[in-house]
Every structure is written in C-alpha cells, then in structure tokens.
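Quick illustration for those who missed Monday's session on complexes.
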Amino acid sequence: MRNTALKVDQFQSNDLGTKVAPKDAKLSMAHIYVAFIAFIIGALGGVLQGLVRGGLIELPSWLGYYQILTAHGVLLALVFTTYFIFGFLFSGMSRTHGAFKDSTRKVGWVGYWILTIGTILATIMILMNEASVLYTFYAPLQAHPLYYVALALFVVGTWVLGTALLIHYFAWKKANKGKLTPLFGHMTVATILMWIICSIGVAATVLLQMLPWSLGMTDSINVLLSRTLFWYFGHPLVYFWLMPAYIAWYVCIPKIIGGKLFSDSLARLAFILLLLFSIPVGFHHQLMESGISPFWKFLQTTLTFMVAIPSLLTAFSIFATLESAGRAKGGTGLFGWMKKLPWGDVRFFTPFMAMLIFIPAGIGGLINASFQMNAVVHNTLWIVGHFHLTVGSTVLLTFFGISYWLIPNLTGRKFTPYLNKLGMLQTWLWMIGMFIMSGSQHLLGFFGAPRRTAYTTYQDHPTALDWFQGIFINQVTMAIGGVILFAAAALMFYNFIYMTFLAPKGENTEFPIGEVSTDAATTPRIFDNWKVWIAVSIVLILFAYTIPLYDMIVNAPPGSAPFNYLIK
Ligand code: HAS
Ligand code: CU
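Prediction with heme-as bound:
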C-alpha cells in the first residue's frame, strides 16, 4: 500500500543557508520599495481625511475629499498590500525552494513591470481627480477609461507574478517527487490560486462592463451585476491580505520564538479551507442590497461562518505553538509559559500584537456577517473600524514585523538593537493610535455615523451633533487617533529608510523558517493535491453564484447612467 502520509521533514532551506539568492532579493526589494512609497502617501491621505471628518481642517479647493479617500484606500489596501505580499512570497519561495531559475524570475519581472505601469497610471488618474471613485470603484460612479485600463493592468500583473511563483513551486515538486512540499510553498500556492480564481470576477466587471461603459460604448451599466462581481473578488481580497500574514505566523514565528510549529497538517488544512471558503461568500458585503434573494444571502452567510473556521484553527495552533515554546523554556503553571516568550524582540512582539488585535477584529467580522446586526452597522463607521483592525492592524503590523528581518536580510544589513527599539516604539504608537481611532469609529458607527462622508452635521441635526459628544463617540477623538497613527506611519517609513539604506552592513539577519514539532502527526498526502482543491473550490463557487448571477443578467434591473459629478 503506497505510503499515503508522509513525515514532515525539515522545511527545505536553499543552499544559501538563511539568505535569499541575490537576484531574487533584488526582485523582492523592487516590490518592497513601491510598497513603502505607496504606504506613506496613502497614510497622508488618511490623516487628512480624519482631520476633515473631525471638522478640524478644510481641504484646499483643488483637493477633493473623495480624491484623498480614494488615494488612501487604493494606495494602502491595494498597492501597499499587493507589492509587500509579492515581495515577501518571492523571497520566501527562494529561501525555501531554492533560487528561482532565470527564466522564471524573468516572468516575475514582467509581472512586476505590468503591475507597476498599472499602479502609476491609476495613481495619475487619482491625482488628476479623474478617478475619485473610492477603492471599490462602485458603479454608477464613473472614472476615466484609463483608470479601468490601469486596474486591468494591475490584475494582469498579479496573474503573471503569481504564475512565476507557481512555476517555481511545481518545479520543486517535480524535482522532489514524493516529498511533502515545504509549508511556505504550500501556503503560497493556496494564496495565489485563491487570488487568481477570485480576481477573474473583478477583471470581468472591469473589462466587460466598466471599460466599455466609460468609453461610451454602452450608455448604462448593470450596477447589481458589477457590484456582485466586485464582491465575488472583494471578500477573498481580504484573505489575500491575511494569508501571507498567517504564513509568517505559521512558518516564521516558531523559529523567532525558538519553538516548533504545533502541527503541519492543521496549518495546511487551514489554508485549504481558506482557498475553498474565501470566494463563495461575497454577498455578506451585499446583505442590505435589493435584487438578491434572501436565500442566496443566507447561503453565503452560512459559508461566511464556515470561512471563520480556518481562522479559529489558526488561533488554536498558534496559541499551542506559543505555549509549547514557552513550556519548553521552563514556563510552568497555567500562564507561566507566557513569560518565556521573547517580548523584547520586535520580530515577535509586533506580529503578536497583530494576533491579539485580530481577536476583536474577527469578532467584529462575525457581527458584520450576522444579517440583523449587519442592518445596524452596514455603511457606517463601524465597518471602517472593523477593517482598520483587520487589515489596518492585524495585516499591517504583521507586515511591519516581517520587515524588521526581511529588509535587512534582502539588503545585507544588520538587525540592530537600535532598529529593535525603533520597531517597539512604532508598534506601541500604532496600537495607541489605532485603539483611539478604531475604537471611536466602532462606537460612532454604532450611533449611526455613516462611512464615506466628509465633515457635516447635516444642518446641526441632533443625531449628527451627537457624533461630537463624549470621549469616544466623537469625530474629534477619531481625528486625534488618526494623527497619532500618522506619526506611527511616519516612524515606520523612517524605519524602512534606516533598514534599507542606513543600518550597518552585515550578513547576520536570518530569514527565519521554523520546524514542525516532532510530536506532530504526519501530513496526509492529499493536502498537496491541488487538482482536488481547485475542483472543490469551483464547485462551491458555481453552487453559490450561478443562479443569482444568471438572474441578475437575465432579469437585469434598468441600467444606470454614469455619475461623475464627484470627479469634475
Ligand atoms: Fe471583514 C467588511 C465579515 C475578516 C477586511 N472586512 C470588511 C471590509 C474590509 C474587511 C476591508 O460579513 C470593508 C469592505 C468595504 O469597503 O465595504 N470579516 C468578516 C468576517 C471575517 C472578516 C466574518 N475582514 C476580515 C479580514 C479582513 C477584513 C481578515 C482584512 C484582512 N467584513 C465582514 C462583513 C463585512 C466586512 C460581513 C461587510 C460589512 C458591510 O456591511 O459592509 C472573519 O474572517 C473573521 C474570523 C476571525 C476570527 C478571529 C480569530 C482570531 C485569531 C487570532 C488568535 C490570537 C492568537 C494570539 C493566536 C473569528 C486568528 C493569542 C495568544 C495569546 C497568548 C492570548
Ligand atoms: Cu468580506
């Protein structure tokens, strides 16, 4: 009987020890540079809109509120995340699966340049106020046709980049027949497959609806269909941000804390479940929308609660990994093991804070997904508070934590005690600012304050004036939190400059790849069989979307003319 399960052996490390091959490091750093430039410009948009919203400043006439809101969302939620993720995945795949072949790395560079041309074009359109349509570019808001060309290039660039990663992974698999793939590779493939399958939706609405509509080839657009195709993509988009953070939690953190991962198979199971259940759930962003039957909303809400399970599995196995590491270092009693964790090491402390924040962040997500409660929070600042905890803290703080060893590793510089101190300060500042800003956003949302509006009291309406009472139910408090956050962002940008150009040269910064606990069960071979998981994923998507999409097309509501009064 063929051995159906394999003992997980050590994660592969390439023949460069803990270094990333220099040519691969160059491709990764090219992404990281763009990521942090987008980060600081996007953060500036954030603090400006917070100050406007709090009634503390007015924007100059040449700068629109929705222009900076679009810049903030696109540059942070789309550009910073995407570039950082590909920079991290390329370096991790080189570190664990060996240096990329020149031909494969070339594919990566082609993808990088397509992505970057799209990014530059989109940024120009936003700065010219030709695309103040927010990061979700909802119809019937209409942007300049070049903005939709830019978005299409952005998506195609990610497909080419993802293809390079998949080529590298399957080349390793072919050269190591019968061996279980390294965990970093398994998780990268799950992330890329999920991204390619879901981004077909946004590519479809951009190319088949938005672009012809903006060129005047059609005089109206099926808004419901375009928003549905966007959210078919939009929810998995958030897991495209989360999964690389999870990769760092599962693969890198165990090494940083001197422990071992609790279970390899549980980690792979969590990523397979994220692949399966991330996509057929988009209606949880459309629960208050008409035109979608309650049955399909209910079905996708049920699947939404399914997709919380891999996060709960993650909570369990990371918690177990931390505890076993603490106990292996002599921690005793119920919580004594916590004292043994490296709290003074920013490479652990920052991602750990990200994990901790994800507890309330995730619970907020479960509230959002509960139909009746969604009626209270939808389109309010509560949602803004939710995603400033999820992507704005859990994901971003994990990416910052990765940066503190990844950038010195890629640039051949030392991870110095000075950098560690700067990183700890930055994390505390970020947490304080986020606690104040997101806390007030949650409460203001609860009291009805809408998202996506500039400063207004609705002609001193009593309810709107309530949004300036009390400590936390106060838009000025939110603005103060935003200012502290911007200070933390500026410090993070300095840390990036220090790590990249100023830290002393030296080869000592490790790219940490952990090991699996020796007590871990063997990993079922089927976890590496992607044909099965892609097939199940497609079946689930067809089950959740075929009938409602067919209905939206065949019984299309009257199309909408373009709204671009915001832009002109
Ligand atoms: Fe969300 C809206 C539901 C997770 C981001 N979400 C958004 C938007 C964004 C976003 C950007 O159902 C706004 C989109 C827009 O512009 O309109 N969200 C969920 C649910 C989850 C969830 C059920 N969201 C995320 C993640 C995001 C993100 C992750 C970014 C990275 N979200 C919604 C819904 C809406 C929504 C509705 C639409 C609302 C509306 O009406 O518009 C779940 O995935 C959450 C599951 C997670 C948990 C927590 C697990 C805890 C973990 C940490 C463990 C701690 C450890 C450390 C290990 C249940 C894994 C502890 C150790 C010690 C020693 C203490
Ligand atoms: Cu969602």
